[in-house]
Write a structure and sequence with these properties.
alpha/beta; eight-stranded mixed β-sheet
């Protein structure tokens, strides 16, 4: 059975991006970027939705072409994603997908991932795709919930609130580390909670 990891980057106040901010909020460093490249070599199959597919495939193409605005390390990290197997859940995209090693699934994502966990030979990981991640957590399909927390509060400019619409989830920490003296990785085993302890099950 394959293990599924939800993998996200987030500000301290729980936003996935912010108006006027660059990728990684401009706070990525060489240690973090090297780790990203190492993770890309671990043979994960990446799960993503249409919006994240459009964004990341475009960034990967720009990185491979030496596009402006990317450092050498950023370009290497983005380019490496082209070689990673990807499953894209979308009813709006059409096959064949332009980004290499991308498979399109138009049906129900939760049921497709449930089946993949039973039959897929390797580990699975999400990339962005907030609504997909929310659905997979709520369905109890996620084995690991991993965050990289960036030291920033974007209360005025933040967008894409990560946890809106989530069920209550208990988190057991299984790993943590710091990148470049400022980014904090936190990895948990998640467990969806039916009701808070003091509610008495009502």
């Amino acid at each position: 059975m394959s293990r599924l990891m939800v993998d996200m980057i987030v500000t301290l106040d729980g936003y996935a991006s912010g108006e006027g901010w660059p990728g990684w909020w401009g706070l990525e460093g060489p240690e973090y970027l090297a780790w990203l490249q190492q993770e890309a070599e671990k043979r994960y199959t990446i799960l993503l939705g249409a919006n994240t597919y459009r964004l990341m495939s475009g960034m990967s193409e720009q990185g491979a072409g030496g596009g402006e605005g990317f450092s050498e390390d950023e370009s290497a990290s983005l380019t490496a994603l082209a070689a990673v197997p990807k499953v894209v859940f979308s009813s709006s995209l059409t096959a064949p997908l332009r980004w290499p090693n991308s498979e399109l699934v138009a049906g129900d994502a939760v049921e497709a991932v449930r089946q993949m966990k039973q039959t897929h030979p390797g580990p699975l990981s999400t990339l962005g795709s907030l609504s997909l991640c929310r659905s997979l957590v709520a369905a109890g399909l996620v084995d690991r919930f991993r965050l990289v927390v960036f030291p920033l509060i974007t209360g005025r400019t933040g967008s894409e609130r990560i946890y809106d619409g989530y069920p209550d989830v208990a988190l057991e920490m299984v790993d943590s580390r710091t990148f470049d003296g400022r980014l904090q990785l936190l990895e948990y085993v998640p467990r969806v909670i039916d009701h808070p302890p003091l509610s008495g099950g009502r």
